[in-house]
């Protein structure tokens, strides 16, 4: 069931391996990834845009302040965390200065990640009966929640601008890595979201486990603190957390010292690739069973 | 699309190639509430799989109108979902020449908390139409479904039979060449029903394929030219509609769970 849709791609990968193995393998894998993943989504981008904008409208429809809440809520939460960890517990040296900016640059992507992943646990649960008639690729539902949480993130980005102006700190040229970080995070969330959505569709307990893991990850990931705060020995383990390298990419424009070594970064990217591939494979295997639950 | 592959060179409209399928038991019987809990206590797990189809092979030619007949749990809905590709067989393959548009229970895909217009776009989107295409056919949909009065009000306030008209009309507006219809080939009463008839007979004449799992014998006798009788996970007969209907107990329509949902409680 691993290759349900590509009867033809399998011989392409394996047969001419002896000759120009690498190039062929690469092109076949890319073609397959396009056909089963990105291509599917791209073909349905207009429907997807409609779904995402409708979700956003519904989310903010009942509030007087509307979309302003997507800024106000994270702003309030960031202020609380800043107050606790910088003013109340200011004795310990935590992260970089100015702390408010340091915090907001990492915590907004972090919230995007948690919101997206916890929303994907519910994608194939509850009311999934539209799947009985849906001719769209099933993974569109996961892409949809990832994009909705991403829109929230994008709307909350002015917080970073406000923090930059207030603290009068401006980034260096490495800020160009900020969009790269967003792209990498989308890829990671696609994979993790597919995994989480398909497993929790079949095992409802998994959603609870995800919630606990996300709580733990909040403290195990350098959001409140810097990579430099991690003891040197533990740092080699921490690089296997995919969020470490992504948050490092977000922060590197402001604090070049926030970068890990190139080796650590490569490990981080490799872990992200593995997470994404595992998510896609898991989803492909479980998709027939998810459809039966509809 | 990944799970729905279209093979334009296929000589058949839809071809089932040694298809086997089993479904979770909870989905095969009304699985909620006390009865469900008693069954769980009695050791009957809800994750237990029950076979629906074993080794079914059938091919349907383009332009045919096929009645899918069978009893209450004979798997007619699963047959249509397999044809449309919203269900993937455990083994075997389903080949389809073109997109198969399913018309199943209308409560499935409509959201009462959205307006009628939003529901049109949403349902059309699920069936693979882009918003631009939907906009282009919106006038036809609204006119056909007689939804003008409720177009911008929430669907929960609209009459029940309008939802049915809406799903039927949006599905027809996809302009698909193959339809898999669960409940009613034609819906409504009186003049609306006549318009439905003229529409479906018009597109059948142009070579559209229909799979109909309706309970309305008169409709099947008038419209279909072939019948498949499902029983016990197999196709036990592949005949004309008259003979096929002979396999089915006529009293079946008195079963309350099987009554076609075409009451006009407006």
From TrEMBL, chain A:
GO MF entry, a single one: ABC-type transporter activity
Q: Which UniProt keywords apply?
A: Cell inner membrane, Cell membrane, Membrane, Transmembrane, Transmembrane helix, Transport
The UniProt record lists the ABC transmembrane type-2 domain at 65-286
From the Swiss-Prot or TrEMBL record, state where the protein is found. Cell inner membrane
Spans traversing the lipid bilayer: 65-85, 97-114, 153-170, 177-203, 209-227, 262-283
Q: Which residues form the signal peptide?
A: none
Q: Name one GO biological process term.
A: lipopolysaccharide transport
Q: How does it sit in the membrane?
A: Multi-pass membrane protein
Protein name per the record: Unannotated protein
Automatic annotation (TrEMBL), chain B:
Boundaries of each ABC transporter domain copy? 36-257
Q: Known InterPro entries for this protein?
A: ABC_transporter-like_ATP-bd, Bact_Polysacc_Export_ATP-bd, P-loop_NTPase
| Residues annotated as signal peptide | none
Positions of region (Disordered): 23-44, 247-266
Can you name one GO molecular function term for this protein?
A: ATP hydrolysis activity
Cross-referenced PANTHER family, in alphabetical order? Answer: TEICHOIC ACIDS EXPORT ATP-BINDING PROTEIN TAGH
Q: What is this protein called?
A: Unannotated protein
Taxonomy, top ranks, is: unclassified sequences, metagenomes, ecological metagenomes
